[in-house]
Amino acid sequence: MKHRKRKQQVKLAVVNLVLMLVCIVTFVPILYAFSVSINEQNSLLSSDFSFIPKEVTLENYRKVFTEEPVVLWFRNSLFLAVSTVMISLGTGIPAAYIFSRRRFPGRNAILQMLILLYAFPSLLSMTALYKLLSPMGLINTKTGLIIVYTGTMAVFALWNMKGYFDTIPIEIEEAAMIDGASPLQIVRRIVLPLAKPTVAVTAMMVLIYVWNEYIFAINFMTGENTYTLAAGLYSLQANETSGSWPVFSAASLLVSLPILVIFFAMQKNMASGLTSGGVKG
Amino acid sequence: MKKSDIKSDIKSTKKKKGAGTAAAYLWSAPSLLLICLIVVFPIFYTGYISLTNMNVYHWFTYDLIGLDNYKEALLVFDSGFLSALFLTVVWTAVNMLLQLVAAYLLASLLNTKGLKLRNCYRTLLIFPWAMPGYVSILLWKTGMFNSQFGLLNQWMEKMGFSPVKWLADDMSAFICCTIVNLWLALPFMITIIDGALQSVDRSYYESALLDGADWMQRTWYITIPAIRPIIAPSVVITIFTTFKQFDVIYLLTQQAGAKTGAHIHTILTYAYENAFITNNYGYSSAVSMIIFVILIVFSYGINMKPKEES
Questions:
Q1: pLDDT of residue A246
Q2: ipTM field
Q3: A18 — contact with chain B (CB < 8 Å)?
Q4: Fewest 10 Å CB contacts: which of B11, B33, B141, B190?
């Protein structure tokens, strides 16, 4: 018996060791970026390189705000993200609800078609989108990007929320209807509160998508003033020199921070809000 | 009840039904219109462009040239599409295999009996998932793989080796991309497999242990069959995202004006390069349409019909 306990302890120690190693390896790129961003000496090319900086400074973080238009990019990103999330939810919730609750001609055909559309990466129709938006004067405008982003995420928003609405028992709504509630009241007072997890997760996915999207942003927007954070960071690293790398790493970590906070705050909702939807991913 | 009453009754329910349909479409109109404008119409438009010779010289004055672009993509081996397609298949296979094995091993370790720090490890391992993808990739590119001041070469020099250009040739660039993709994708896979492992009934293992089954046998005959249906949808989705992977390869090896020397293309980076770098829009659109068809055939092949409770 004692022998067995001993064996169990050895096994646990090995498992702990392996997992710790994996965690450390996982964090190397992030920790290294952090270390570079607070390194006083800026000695990237010198021979006395060390992973842990000898002198610490916040100079690079100051530079992010003073030398690069990061605050402007942040404002652009925030504006795009909030508008896109609002429009996505505003258009997505009614559609998802209707597709979940009503049966009408064309419903199945549309749902099937949406699944196929979901397989099509929006990147591939970029030329066509450009050709479509430019006569309308929407290239190099925030409105144009918002339309592209909402349209791209609309299929996901519809399917994901519809899947969750399907799991809410219809009996509650029927009871409310007998009590004389109007359809709008039912949605506002009963369905939406119950559907909070999926609305939150959908909003988060849209937000993260907009926050991280750079390829449309750099092709459809010209000029540093209109850049989003993602496009701006992309342009920062494009003129990659050893001098700008500490500033870039500082900026990268700053940009990631809001997403990290949202992600870990939402983690509990993730499972229920995403997995019960029809389309995952 | 009179006959005419019944008739009008039927009429009114029909009317009601028609009104219901109209209302249904009215409420979903904004969403459906957006999808039509941004998703459906551009696909048809891409199909149209694929039949023309639109490029940077013929941006407005292009002509219909029939199926020439398709012929070039599919029949001319030198065009690069077929090799990109082949590489994409290899890339997907290699990545999925590594991901599944690594995620399974790590998830099993996380589920070791008596592991006190389980939640701590889990949170740490999920971390890369929470980072913005492009930021992580750029940090890998500049922080780790950069030939002058990347961490790998700093370590190489410290150990007395000469620095290596990690992203300069095809093979090592492919390996670097795979490592980064693994780093990005493992957290999702670990979460899925970990969740599935926890749902496996413990009593199976107890009876298997009594029968003297070793770890391999338990894995092969109990765990894998038990978790397969649970993880299948997520695995299918990951296969799709891996097949459609763009960011990793594009950002690591071939940004505009910053090509690292490696020449690896997945079908998506290939389509993108032809559209926005060499500006051959007609040809690139043909490639896009072919990719779309492949994806549709795929999703029908594995019958990824969404489950609908009804």
A1: 84
A2: 0.83
A3: yes
A4: B11
Question: How far apart are alpha carbons B238 and A280 in whole angstroms?
Answer: 10
| Minimal Cβ distance to A49: which of B126, B158, B284 | B158
Residue positions counted in chain B: 310
* Contact yes or no for B115 and A12 at CB 8 A: yes
Strand, coil or helix: B254: strand
Q: Is B255 left (phi over 0), alpha (psi -120 to 50) or beta?
A: beta
How many Cα atoms within 13 Å fall on the side-chain side of residue B289? 23
pTM: 0.85
Tokens of B303: 């019958």
Closest of B67, B259, B272 to residue A130, by C-alpha: B272
Q: Which residues contact A270 (CB under 8 A, 6 or more apart)?
A: A201
Element (H, E) at A64: helix A59-67
Q: How many CB atoms lie within 10 A of CB B162?
A: 7
Q: What is the distance, to the nearest Å, from the Cα of residue B233 to the centroid of all Cα atoms in its chain?
A: 13
From chain B, pick out residues whose CB is under 8 angstroms from the CB of A7: none
Picking from A107, A118, A127 by the largest number of B CB atoms within 10 A of its own CB, the best residue to mutate is A127
Q: What angle do CA A2, A8, A14 make, to 5 degrees?
A: 140
Q: Which of B81, B138, B193, B215 to mutate to test the interface with A (most CBs of A within 10 A)?
A: B138
- Report how far residue A19's alpha carbon sits from residue A11's, in angstroms, rounded to the nearest whole number: 12
With tokens 């990019």, the residue in question is A73
Which residues of chain A make contact with B295, given a CB cutoff of 8 A? 119-120
Q: Could you tell me the CA-to-CA distances from A235 to A45, A208, A240, A251, B89 in Å, in that order? A: 23, 20, 9, 12, 31
pLDDT, residue A280, reads 38
> What's the average model confidence in pLDDT over B201-209?
83
CB–CB of B304/B234 below 8 Å? no
Tokens of A270: 């993730």
Residue B12 clears pLDDT 80, i.e. is over it: no
